[in-house]
Specification:
By secondary structure, this protein is α+β, with helices and mostly antiparallel strands. It has 16 helices and seven strands. It folds into three domains: 81 residues, no CATH class; 96 residues, no CATH class; 222 residues, hpI Integrase, Chain A (Orthogonal Bundle), CATH 1.10.443.10. A four-stranded antiparallel β-sheet has the order 1-2-3-4. The longest helix is centred in the first third of the chain and has 20 residues. The chain starts with a strand and ends with a helix.
């Protein structure tokens, strides 16, 4: 649908104008409507107000009459026209625009959900400041939003918001205001600035790692509820995988059983997908063994609903689920941290990726190879980017690792006990 707009008459120079809008419908017919454009010298902006009239003469008379009712508000700088609408109206308008973009394939449904969530802080800010009109909100946002948001804490950890969260939020707010500006609803967008990101490359402390391994085994072994035991075994394997390959959390969530293979030399390989990137790496036999243990665990404990890796293709899917959840069930992991002497708030799941990178660097591996192996930028570890072939890359990364980590993992008595629990469960 194409649309054209033109000014028909300056009824009151620089104050009141009659505007015509014409557009062609999908069936080829043409439609026309009229509105007045009103300038507020106090607010230094134009407002467009739609008219009901269907002819130029009647629209002009309606516009003059309507303007007469607005003169007092215009002279005192009060909100008129669209400015009188509540913030929720404009947010709904913006979300409708985002939904159209989703249908056209420009953004994903998940992005629409995220945008809606990030706009809630703007709604709360406006509500706590007595819901000003949309024009006044811009000045208020510039003056007070940053200070107001500084006092906000995260719901889960009661910490201040990270720079990443604040930047994502501001980006969506700016996008929202720019959309209103493009629609001639506001004259300008608020001026904003980005927050400096702080490094989050904090590895899980090595001195607590052995204790964590022991706590995980004990907790999984003693857990009686099959669903919890299942999800905890998944989380344990996630930690072992990230600690053994340095992969990302998104790559873990996207991992399928078909992505885990053996090459022609019987070396285990994993295809990782995440952050819009894909990569294939050779992994240690020990890591491969942990993944195969998880597969056997799921076959035994999921026998009553005929679990198999083709129908349940996601490696770390939860109990009886085929698809991955957006978030891992991490309450057990946080409990393991506490028993291991580690503050759960200090170490998100990504800390095991950073542990792998820091361990590899400490063992003498070159940052160039580590960057390629973990699919990150060399800049992150202060080196220059380069490329290397897969076999050489594997050798370089594990060159200084212990011999044990390169050997094929042997079945432990603990894991045999976990499988026995699953088999005994079938007989009861």
């Amino acid at each position: 649908m194409s649309q054209k707009q033109r000014t028909l008459e300056e009824i009151i120079p620089k104050r009141l104008s009659l505007v015509e809008r014409r557009w062609t419908n999908r069936n080829g017919s043409e439609s026309v409507s009229y509105r007045i454009r009103v300038y507020s010298s106090e607010l230094k902006k134009y407002n467009f107000i739609s008219l009901k009239s269907t002819s130029v003469s009647s629209a002009k008379l309606e516009g003059i009459k309507l303007y007469g009712t607005l003169v007092s508000d215009i002279e005192t700088g009060k909100a008129i026209g669209n400015d009188k609408r509540k913030l929720t109206f404009y947010i709904d308008m913006f979300l409708d625009h985002m939904e159209v973009r989703r249908k056209n394939g420009h953004i994903t449904h998940h992005r629409v959900v995220v945008v809606r969530q990030l706009l809630r802080s703007l709604e709360k800010f406006a509500d706590e400041h007595k819901n000003p009109n949309i024009t006044s909100l811009i000045d208020l946002y510039e003056e007070k939003y940053e200070e107001w948001r500084d006092r906000s804490l995260t719901r889960l950890t009661a910490k201040t918001l990270t720079a990443n969260t604040r930047n994502n939020e501001i980006q969506v707010h700016r996008q929202f205001f720019n959309h209103l500006k493009n629609k001639d609803i506001i004259r300008r967008s608020p001026v904003t600035s980005k927050f400096k990101r702080q490094s989050t490359n904090k590895p899980f402390p090595q001195k607590h790692y052995s204790k964590l391994m022991s706590v995980m085994r004990k907790e999984i072994e003693q857990q009686k509820h099959p669903k919890i035991k299942w999800n905890w075994q998944c989380m344990r394997t996630v930690i072992l995988l990230m600690s053994g390959t340095g992969c990302r959390v998104t790559e873990v969530k996207n991992l399928r059983w078909s992505h885990i293979t053996l090459d022609k030399n019987k070396l285990p390989r994993i295809h990782f997908e995440g952050k819009g990137k894909e990569r294939d790496i050779t992994v240690s036999k020990r890591v491969y063994g942990y993944l195969m243990d998880l597969k056997e665990f799921k076959k035994v404990w999921g026998r009553d609903w005929e679990w198999n890796e083709k129908e349940y293709e996601m490696v770390f899917s939860s109990w009886r689920m085929k698809k991955m959840l957006n978030q891992f069930d991490s309450w057990g992991r946080r409990n393991w941290y506490e028993q291991s002497g580690v503050d759960p708030k200090e170490y998100p799941l990504v800390c095991f990726r950073h542990k792998f990178i820091s361990d590899a660097l400490r063992n003498g591996s070159h940052a160039l190879q580590i960057a390629n192996y973990t699919g990150t930028s060399v800049k992150m570890i202060q080196m220059t980017y380069g490329s290397i072939t897969a076999p050489e890359l594997y050798d370089q990364v594990f060159l200084n690792s212990s011999t044990e980590s390169q050997e094929e993992k042997e079945r432990t008595k603990w894991f045999d006990k976990i499988l026995s629990q699953g088999r005994e469960r079938e007989l009861t």
